[in-house]
Amino acid sequence: MNAPHPQPIALQGAGLVKRFKTGRTHIEVLKSIDFDCRHGEMTMVMGPSGSGKSTLIAALSGLLRPDEGKVTALGEDLWSQRPGRIDKFRLDHCGFIFQGFNLFGALTALQQVTTILKYKGYSPAEARDRAAIALTEVGLGKRLEQRPAELSGGEKQRVAIARALAKDPRLLFADEPTSALDGENGQIVIKLLQRAAKEHGAAVICVTHDPRLEAYADRIIHIEDGRILDDRRTADVAAQAKQSALAGA
Ligand code: ADP
Ligand code: MG
């Protein structure tokens, strides 16, 4: 019936627990989370504010060490590595997109992208070419010399996406990437993330509480109070709806 999932697993978390100490109490923010996602797929992580979404992607992406559990990223046991190795892993393989864009105020759109590419080891000329291509792909080919103050919110987020995609990351993490944007710009941004999955084979993990984005997901994970409540592929959802329609006919 259903074809096996064609794409390999890119990222897997097993038994992830994270606690924070606030004053004298510990709060458990991740309560033994099992998570995986595949190359070429857009996985949406949804859930109310404070449910642990940002903590989860921080643990999965090497930004925040979990107290328990294991993260296997592109076949590597991420948290068993030396800190320097984790930093290198992030630089080589991960792209990040945040709600607040996280651009450098003093740099032009082009420089935002070339800086990270040079840091990764590209020559200045290669970095420039790659950056210009990445910015053109997100529709900013004519805005290369603009600084953040001269760009709209939607344009700023597209610069952040170009910066993340220019290094062709295998893992792309987006934390509420559309929440500072209006509907139209949000849609442009989410379609670019979808393209990173479909055309570049990245595993895209997108945290959002915007239900309008569900339509772009291959898989939707609902998290509440540090636990996964629901995990389904949208193809399964569509198939289920079809089945029950047929059963009802
Ligand atoms: P979400 O992204 O779903 O809104 P978060 O992962 O940011 O949720 O946070 C989950 C819970 O953990 C919240 O109650 C938050 O206050 C708490 N929290 C997050 N980071 C820290 C921290 N560094 N120290 C203490 N508590 C934190
Ligand atoms: Mg958050």
Automatic annotation (TrEMBL):
Segments forming a coiled coil: none
SMART domains tied to this protein: AAA
InterPro entries, A to Z: AAA+_ATPase, ABC_transporter-like_ATP-bd, ABC_transporter-like_CS, ABC_transpr_LolD-like, MacB-like_ATP-bd, P-loop_NTPase
Key word Hydrolase present: no
This protein's UniProt keywords: ATP-binding, Nucleotide-binding, Transport
Stored PANTHER family: ABC TRANSPORTER, IMPORT ATP-BINDING PROTEIN
Protein name: ABC transport system ATP-binding protein
Source species: Phenylobacterium koreense
Organism phylogeny: Bacteria, Pseudomonadati, Pseudomonadota, Alphaproteobacteria, Caulobacterales
